Amino acid sequence: MNVLLILVLLGLSRTATGTPDTCESCGLRPMADGREISRVARSRDAQPGAWPWMVSVQQVWSTGIVHVCGGSLVGPRWVLTAAHCFVDARNVPTWRVLAGATHLAHDRPEVQVRFVKQLVLHEDYDNVSQKNDVALVELDHPVRCGPHVQRACLPDPSLPLSATANCYVSGWGTTSAKAAASPLVLQEFQVHLIDSHTCNGSGWHRGGVHPHNVCAGYPRGGGGDTCRGDSGGPLVCQDGRSDRFWLVGVSSWGRGCARAHRPGVYTSTQSFHHWILAKMGLDSPGTTTRSTA
Question: Which are the catalytic amino acids?
């Protein structure tokens, strides 16, 4: 974990559709400008605005500010992350969220800082088995969406993952299990979804994967994988028919990093679709479900 500088809160000018300060769209990458996403297995530095729903969940100490977990904006006031990030959480007002950032120690106009109003952990979260490892963070006031800050799209349970294409993970976690420090620059890498039955089998995770989990990585190891500090971050997959990305998983747990037959395990957002919407107080899931276009 890194001690960070306190970043200046500055505004954004427009959204992907040109409408000032709104969050009507989701799952789009306005700053990508048609750039090819890295298809290499190992992580690389992400470009500014590459993953505009990505946030850093941080705790403020008297000695500085520490990155604890990743998270994804799912609404102007809401961040979806992992429950295990807050097992020992105390004093909620000392937690904050950094949106629009790529380099955690650089002040840039697109960076927005919000403090945490409340933590909402799943009522049945189990810290031993990591069942129901999902949480929502409510911000003290909304973010302003723009090219560097967008909300993620939550797929409803009817979206078949087979209808998605390339899948990616991003985060500020360590790049290997033996790394002494985490990078300050956001890392990105491609992963492959792995059949849950295979992932849970003998020689793999041996029954530790729950029905509400998704596995992603590389069967032979050595490729991209989440590691320490990536918890709570997004697993996104591109819609097979558009440029939109779906937030299909929340980084939950793993055994080591990038080991053979030990892919990363994620909390399936589809399994918790109703819970997420209910906790956010959304009566209608219209803007967060799968597109029929």
Answer: 84, 133, 231
